[in-house]
């Protein structure tokens, strides 16, 4: 974003909005340093340079702070006044106080008057900073009123802005639950940049008429303003422009409460499509009415129904006569030996314990009170129609959804390298499984995701075989453990063109945070479902579909290219949007371990799914769910609605900073290579052609383009580093170097990669520590090489060669044996995994064959189909290489032989692979 001065001198202030908060903080700190040097400098020539540097930084900051309540526009006039009068000593003191207030966030708790220059004022900022250090974070001070900022969009003069700001300030009362300040902007574009760069904005009041264009060049908004121009809006009425702005604000930050102040026909405006406005005010409605309405809207998101009920329950005196001795802490407080639990956890966690059947609180199995309300709030926050809490992890959430939707012998198309819970879910449901292969990344021993063409091709096979009606669900992982993200909307749209009632289960275990960032959100299941529903209801889509259908009908329907090489559109009269998403809330948002959610956007849920879903939920949910997990899910939802945008924003910033250092540091590059888009997504799936989001010259300016257009993108908050050049495999590097030496914990490795995941708790200090550790390790590897003898260097070279050149190709799914195929003579690939799974329960049906001594290979050479009787899951990579009923192929065997991992579930080295006997395959029981 640029400001153009009267002399047309550009000052670059904003490039990529993901970096804005770091740019803001770093620029204020740099300004403070420059002023400190300036007031202590005697050299006139160097002083001139510093004065110019201060001028540039103040100009840059004034642009950024135009979209924040603190420091205010009045504060900036004070700064410029001191600068113009060359009172650099006083300016340095004011800036130092201002930086302290920003760091300690004291402006959230009290008014900071920068015109005060006495020692007491500085002491207050110092005490605030000290209090922050003692608490860890100001938000942990639960007694303080939560602070937010109100955005007012109106073409006001500077004096008018002060009048409005003062009017809202005068509405404050000590009894208010929240405290807020006011940000005013004067144009359509400024309103959008404000909600992007200022996470404190929680409410927006759109008033009267306002122009389209900002006085700044808002380059960061290119992707959001495409197709709009001042000319296209100049003929719109006040209401039309306000409604359009409201819609775009909702797309960027749906959590913001919006209000409209109109001077026109308020009744006519109210009858329009104003779904994103909480309320309409007519002209100068009493400020106190606006004040209370805004606070009430904020309170509606801030409430935590179950957590509040749990806290109230913990205060009640009760007599405990049910089967939980630990309830109310009784068995602990009376103990002479177990008191250390209270010392460690505190008493509240025990006061909040009770039996789920005692009537003290709501029931998760059949909620009617605070749990029901908490789940409704979760649906609002995540854009779902229904949401359900799960207290035993997403593995269980996945099984609930599968059992609710799939009957025995329904065909499910499923990503073969998905989480093992899905494979076991197929067993429990009795599904006929049709596995889909992801594209392989052989150089890094990992898979990407399933190409859309592969999915469409499989659906066409079922369509041509007359079995499309049996295909019930498509199950995919979005995003993958390694951060590969689907174009969810595109997948759903094209699959629905072939089968209009197909159900989608998107495993978003690692993607719960994505709904709170405007770049990530469009690739989430719930957002895609809502967007497609609205799209198919519009007249514009019907016209688009009619034109497409006329062109499509002129083509040869038996030619694969007709279906595979062009974009498909579903029939708006036939299509049904049926999408489910499972979230590991505890993995990427705030929740205790195993806190997960199921989100539903299914137009047929009430008619077809509600009863079986309830039964499946009852089947897999404990009758004694952990209330602490439920409370943490409730609080985690509230936090995501109130500050999810800010937290995810900071997470992405931290990840980009880490990537930037790893991209540019020569020694780090030598041993640690960050995998970028071109490494993890083949060119055929990168329609934008973007190879990396980062450019050393222009910075981070390509992410939105890729995320808007590509079939697959890489989540930049997940940093996969190739470590083959170190000569150390991923598992050893994880345990011996990162964990044992430096206490750095990571989840995932492959043979030659390690994955570093940032999250909403990652700080800049954490990033600095990781970089310091990696630099120390790089120096250690450098010294190791320099001090090695010739034989030792040869050993290192061999290890590097093995990890970078001798990587076994990842095997595709082979096939189900004919004994487990419902139609052995057909052309479709599905298999009855349940039949194979339970056939292995009888010992006489299975035997062990070793492949380390050639026994299994000899059987294969003799012409025998060797068929796995169990899941075989090596860690890493952590997905089933074999499932029950699958034929062992030469490629799979080669892969297993080449693995140098010690942990392979389903394989016993002393015995071999568990396989079916030939007799069992000749006479399998009926499915």
UniProtKB/TrEMBL annotation:
Instruction: Tell me any Pfam family this protein matches.
Output: OKR_DC_1
Cofactor(s), names only, from the UniProt record: pyridoxal 5'-phosphate
Q: Name one GO molecular function term.
A: lyase activity
Q: Does the keyword Lyase apply?
A: yes
Q: Lineage from the top down?
A: Bacteria, Pseudomonadati, Pseudomonadota, Gammaproteobacteria, Oceanospirillales
Which InterPro entries does its entry note?
Answer: LL-DAP_aminotransferase, Orn/Lys/Arg_deCO2ase_major_dom, PyrdxlP-dep_Trfase, PyrdxlP-dep_Trfase_major
Protein keywords? Aminotransferase, Lyase, Transferase
Tell me what this protein is called: Beta-eliminating lyase-related protein
Domain Orn/Lys/Arg decarboxylases family 1 pyridoxal-P attachment site: residue ranges: 304-529, 580-764
């Amino acid at each position: 974003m640029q400001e153009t001065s009267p002399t047309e001198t550009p000052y670059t202030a904003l490039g990529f909005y993901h970096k804005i908060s770091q740019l803001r903080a770093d620029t204020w700190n740099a300004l403070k340093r420059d002023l400190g040097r300036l007031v202590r400098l005697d050299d006139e020539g160097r002083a001139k340079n510093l004065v110019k540097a201060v001028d540039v930084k103040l100009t840059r900051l004034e642009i950024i702070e135009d979209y924040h309540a603190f420091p205010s526009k009045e504060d900036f006039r004070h700064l410029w006044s001191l600068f113009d009068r060359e009172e650099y000593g006083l300016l340095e003191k004011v800036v130092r106080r201002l930086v302290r207030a920003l760091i300690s966030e004291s402006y959230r708790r009290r008014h900071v008057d920068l015109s005060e220059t006495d020692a007491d004022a500085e002491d207050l900022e110092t005490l605030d900073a000290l209090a922050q250090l003692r608490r860890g974070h100001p938000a942990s001070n639960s007694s303080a009123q939560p602070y937010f900022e109100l955005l007012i969009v109106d073409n006001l003069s500077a004096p008018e802005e002060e009048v409005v700001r003062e009017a809202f300030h005068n509405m404050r009362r000590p009894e208010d639950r929240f405290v807020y300040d006011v940000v005013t902007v004067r144009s359509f574009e400024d309103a959008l940049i404000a909600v992007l760069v200022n996470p404190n904005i929680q409410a927006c009041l759109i008033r009267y008429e306002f122009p389209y264009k900002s006085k700044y060049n808002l380059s960061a908004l290119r992707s959001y303003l495409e197709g709009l121009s001042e000319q296209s809006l100049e003929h719109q009425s006040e209401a039309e422009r306000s409604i359009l702005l409201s819609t775009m604000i909702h797309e960027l930050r749906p959590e913001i409460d919006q209000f409209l102040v109109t001077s026109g026909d308020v009744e006519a405006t109210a009858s329009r499509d104003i779904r994103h406005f909480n309320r309409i005010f007519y002209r100068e409605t009493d400020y106190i009415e606006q004040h209370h309405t805004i606070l009430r809207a904020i309170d509606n998101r801030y409430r935590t129904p179950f957590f509040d009920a749990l806290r109230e329950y913990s205060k009640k005196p009760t007599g405990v006569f049910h089967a939980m001795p630990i309830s109310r802490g009784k068995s602990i407080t009376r103990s002479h030996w177990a008191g250390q639990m209270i010392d460690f956890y505190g008493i509240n966690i025990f006061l909040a314990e009770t039996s789920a059947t005692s009537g003290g609180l709501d029931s998760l199995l059949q909620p009617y009170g605070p749990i029901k309300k908490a789940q409704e709030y979760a649906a609002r926050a995540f854009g779902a129609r229904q949401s359900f809490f799960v207290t035993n992890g997403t593995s269980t959430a996945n099984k609930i959804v599968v059992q609710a939707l799939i009957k025995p012998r329904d065909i499910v198309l499923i990503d073969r390298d998905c989480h093992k819970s899905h494979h076991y879910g197929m067993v429990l449901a009795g599904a006929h499984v049709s596995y889909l292969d992801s594209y392989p990344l052989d150089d890094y021993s990992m898979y990407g995701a399933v190409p859309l063409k592969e999915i469409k091709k499989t659906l066409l096979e079922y369509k041509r075989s007359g079995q499309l009606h049996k295909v019930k669900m498509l199950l995919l992982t979005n995003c993958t453990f390694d951060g590969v993200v689907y174009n969810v909307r595109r997948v759903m749209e094209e699959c629905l063109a072939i089968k209009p009632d197909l159900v989608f289960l998107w495993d978003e275990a690692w993607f719960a945070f994505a709904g709170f960032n405007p770049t990530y959100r469009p690739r989430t299941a719930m957002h895609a479902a809502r967007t497609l529903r609205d799209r198919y209801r519009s007249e514009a889509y019907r016209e688009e579909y009619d034109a497409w259908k006329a062109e499509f009908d002129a083509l040869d329907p038996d030619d694969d290219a007709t279906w595979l090489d062009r974009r498909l559109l579903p029939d708006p009269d036939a299509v049904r949007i049926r999408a489910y998403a499972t979230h590991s809330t505890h993995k990427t948002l705030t929740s205790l371990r195993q806190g997960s959610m199921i989100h539903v956007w299914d137009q047929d849920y009430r008619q077809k799914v509600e009863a079986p879903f309830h039964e499946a939920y009852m089947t897999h949910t404990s009758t004694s769910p952990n209330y602490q997990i439920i409370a943490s899910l409730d609080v985690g939802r509230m936090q995501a609605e109130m500050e999810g945008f800010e937290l995810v924003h900071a997470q992405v910033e931290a990840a980009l900073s880490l990537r930037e250092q790893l991209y540019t540091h020569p020694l780090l590059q030598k041993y640690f290579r960050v995998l970028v888009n071109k490494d993890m997504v083949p060119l055929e799936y990168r329609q934008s052609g973007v190879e990396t989001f980062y450019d050393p010259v222009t910075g981070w300016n390509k992410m939105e383009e890729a995320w808007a257009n590509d079939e697959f993108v890489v989540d930049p908050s997940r940093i996969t580093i190739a470590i083959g050049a170190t000569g150390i495999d991923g598992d050893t590097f994880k345990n011996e170097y990162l964990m044992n030496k430096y206490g750095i914990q990571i989840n995932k490795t492959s043979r030659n990669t390690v994955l570093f995941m940032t999250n909403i708790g990652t700080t800049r200090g954490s990033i600095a520590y990781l970089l310091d550790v990696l630099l120390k390790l790089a120096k250690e590897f450098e010294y190791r090489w320099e001090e090695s003898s010739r034989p030792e260097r040869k050993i290192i070279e061999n290890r590097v060669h093995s990890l970078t050149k001798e990587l076994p190709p990842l095997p595709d799914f082979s096939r189900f044996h004919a004994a487990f195929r419902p139609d052995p003579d057909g052309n479709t690939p599905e298999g009855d995994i349940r039949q194979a799974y339970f056939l292995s329960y009888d010992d006489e049906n299975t035997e062990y064959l070793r492949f380390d001594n050639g026994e299994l290979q000899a059987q294969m050479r003799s012409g025998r189909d060797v068929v796995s009787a169990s899941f075989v899951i090596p860690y890493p990579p952590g997905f089933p290489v074999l499932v029950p009923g699958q034929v062992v192929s030469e490629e799979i065997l080669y892969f297993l032989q080449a693995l140098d991992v010690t942990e392979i579930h389903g394989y016993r080295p002393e015995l071999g692979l568990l396989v079916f006997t030939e007799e069992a395959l000749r006479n399998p029981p009926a499915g």
